Amino acid sequence: MPPVLNTRVIFKSIPQGYPVPGQTLAADHSQKIDLDNVSLAGGKILAKTLSISIDPYLRGKMNGTEKMSFEIGHPHAVAKVIRSENPKFKVGDHIYGIMDWAEYQIFENVPELRILPPNSGIPWSVFPGKTAYYAWQEVAQGKEGETIYVSTAAGAVGSVVVQLAKQAGLKVIASAGHESKLQFLRDLGADVVFNYKTESMENVLKDHEPIDIYWDHVGGKTTSTVLMHMNTFGRVVVIGQISTYNVAEADAVSNFPQILFRRLTVRGLGVIDHEAKHGDEFYATIPGMIARGELKYNETIVRSLDEAPQLFLDVQKGDNSGKAVIVLADD
Ligand SMILES: NC(=O)c1ccc[n+]([C@@H]2O[C@H](COP(=O)([O-])OP(=O)(O)OC[C@H]3O[C@@H](n4cnc5c(N)ncnc54)[C@H](OP(=O)(O)O)[C@@H]3O)[C@@H](O)[C@H]2O)c1
């Protein structure tokens, strides 16, 4: 087969505020790859990308704090091995890990890749999405009868948290910024649902306090407000800070003394730190629950890397619903 186009998404410039499709991130069609003959010497593997997860945190990678790179790496993705010179990976294996925004990729650093279990009965795009499970097990430890407030609850992480909390018998308060997302949250079983853009969070929390667990995806003023409604010995699970990602000067979190007054535990969690401890348990539990319909999910899907820069902006602005993914092939 002659060399084929290897479309990529490249990082062109540091955004000032929100990313601008085509200017800060852009699809690139300048690279070709010879799939039959490209060298894999030294134990490399060649894989075809199936799905790429568009996670909000990638915006932080574009601030110039890291060494400026013209290829923006770090999305979590699933790919299928099409050639291998590494005995641990065989042709047809589905692999999960941190990858490039590209249709085809060669991996040298194979220890970072996980081989996914076959035939799980769910789309490969659903696989990336472990943050909710790890942080639920590791930090939240919700108990029946407690109250949790989940911010950006209709998103990839939030929607799983809402369901894990309901299954554990908690009262769930969930917020999102679009009316269309509120029905999804009701369908997931959330007890109290509100649009944080049109309703007063202060009033909602006042009506339903005390909050035992705050699942923080937002930071800034949101977190400052929630701290005033927490229960004694409550837990604040700090997973994201999206209110800070696209602004030059973010609002600081105030009301810090409440951490002492209310004896709060505030803990940040990075998904990559918990792969070794909870990864096997995740794959043994969550895909099966999704396949059996015990966990619902919602995705915003685009089918080409040309659409990736716009989807990336949509996620930052809240114009996605559920998990935002680029699906390049179903298998
Ligand atoms: N720690 C980790 O390892 C880890 C891993 C994955 C994700 N995260 C973080 O977890 C959070 C959720 O990630 P996700 O992948 O599930 O994304 P997501 O919730 O699907 O997408 C981001 C959502 O944030 C909301 N949003 C945007 N700007 C906002 C603002 N100023 N205030 C309040 N909400 C805002 C939007 O929804 P609305 O319609 O609700 O506004 C948007 O859809 C993000 O902050 C992300 O960075 C952390």
Silhouette? globular
Structural class: alpha/beta
Query: What is the CA–CA distance across the termini?
Result: 20 Å
Spell out the CATH superfamily of the largest domain. Medium-chain alcohol dehydrogenases, catalytic domain
H/E order of the elements? EEEEEEEEEHEHEHEHEHEHEHEHE
Helix proportion: 10-25%
Strand content: 25-35%
* Uncertain residue ranges: 66-70
CATH architecture of the largest domain: Alpha-Beta Complex
> What is the CATH domain class of the largest domain?
Alpha Beta
Give a short account of the largest sheet.
7 strands, mixed
Tally of strands = 17
Average per-residue pLDDT, rounded, comes to: 92
Counting copies of identical and different chains, the oligomeric state is: single chain
Pfam families: ADH_N_2, ADH_zinc_N
InterPro entries: ADH-like_C, ADH_N_2, ER, GroES-like_sf, MDR_fam, NAD(P)-bd_dom_sf
Organism: Auricularia subglabra (strain TFB-10046 / SS5) (White-rot fungus)
Domain Enoyl reductase (ER): 22-326
Explain how this protein is built:
This is Alcohol dehydrogenase. GO terms for molecular function: oxidoreductase activity, acting on the CH-CH group of donors, NAD or NADP as acceptor. Pfam families: ADH_N_2 (PF16884), ADH_zinc_N (PF00107). The protein has 331 residues and is an alpha/beta fold. It folds into two domains: 4-116 and 298-327, Quinone Oxidoreductase, Chain A, domain 1; 136-272, Rossmann fold (3-Layer(aba) Sandwich), CATH 3.40.50. It has helices at residues 131-140, 156-167, 179-187, 201-208, 220-227, 258-261, 275-291, 308-317; strands spanning 4-5, 8-11, 25-28, 32-33, 45-53, 76-84, 94-98, 104-107, 114-115, 147-150, 171-176, 192-195, 211-216, 230-238, 265-268, 299-302, 323-327. Strands 5, 6, 7, 8, 9, 16 and 17 form a seven-stranded mixed beta sheet that branches. A six-stranded parallel beta sheet has the order 12-11-10-13-14-15, sandwiched between helices. The protein has a two-stranded antiparallel sheet with strand order 1-4. Strand 11 (171-176), helix 3 and strand 12 (192-195) form a beta-alpha-beta unit. Helix 1 crosses helix 2 (156-167). The longest helix has 17 residues, at 275-291. Residues 66-70 have low confidence and may be disordered. Bound molecules: NADP nicotinamide-adenine-dinucleotide phosphate. NADP nicotinamide-adenine-dinucleotide phosphate is lined by residues 55-57, 131, 152, 154-158, 176-178, 181, 217-218, 239-240, 242-243, 269-271, 315, 318, 320.
